[in-house]
Amino acid sequence: MKEIQLEFKIKIYQSLEELPLSSQNLILKAREAAQRAYAPYSGYRVGAAVLLGNGEVVTGNNQENAAYPSGLCAERTAMFYASSRFPGETMCSIAVSTISNSALSGKFAKPCGSCRQVIAEYEDLSGIPIVIILDGSSAITVVNGIDTLLPFRFKKEDMGK
């Protein structure tokens, strides 16, 4: 038998002001995007903001649909839009913020498994770890790279190509 221990580091900030200015701005953009989310069924609005290597910031929000699960999460909305608008551009970081009943919700936002896998794919395409900033009412959590959130992810080489 072989045993492997996984270790990772996360940074937890107690306030927005503790973060670098670029991260603060990205979170504010994610919060703005969350305000515009289409969430008539859950009332849980999520916004995401992606910082690209060219300095552009692209936002997205969750889009619900009565024909569940036809909607789309904020993270994938933002990343797919960034890729279609700026093909081949490096994605450097993504901030995710959630709002429930007009207030920041939870300890911090948590991307679903599908969003984590999409972040992984764009991280592989970018060739650098994507900084993931998870906004919350009591803390802001920052991780450097998707492997912290999805250690056993699918990779292109796993697909036999």
Topology overview:
Elements: E1 11-13, H1 21-35, E2 44-52, E3 57-61, H2 74-85, E4 91-100, E5 103-104, H3 113-126, E6 131-134, E7 140-144
Parallel strand pairs: 4-6
Antiparallel strand pairs: 1-7, 2-3, 2-4, 4-5, 6-7
Overview of this structure, please?
By secondary structure, the protein is of the alpha+beta class. It has a single domain, classed as 3-Layer(aba) Sandwich (Cytidine Deaminase, domain 2). The protein is built from three helices and seven strands. Strands 1, 2, 3, 4, 5, 6 and 7 form a seven-stranded mixed sheet that branches. A hairpin with a 5-residue loop joins β6 (131-134) and β7 (140-144). The model has no long low-confidence stretch (mean pLDDT 92).
| CATH topology name | Cytidine Deaminase, domain 2
Oligomer: single chain
Strand content: 15-25%
- What's the CATH H-level homologous superfamily? Cytidine Deaminase, domain 2
Uncertain ranges:
none
> What number of structural domains do the residues give?
1
| E-strand count | 7
CATH architecture: 3-Layer(aba) Sandwich
Order of helix and strand elements from N to C terminus: EHEEHEEHEE
- What is the arithmetic mean of pLDDT? 92
**What is the end-to-end distance?**
30 Å
- What overall geometry do the principal axes of the alpha carbons give? globular
Q: What is the count of helical runs?
A: 3
Q: What is the C-level CATH assignment?
A: Alpha Beta
Structural class: alpha+beta
Outline the biggest β-sheet: 7 strands, mixed
Helix content: 25-40%
Radius of gyration: 16 Å
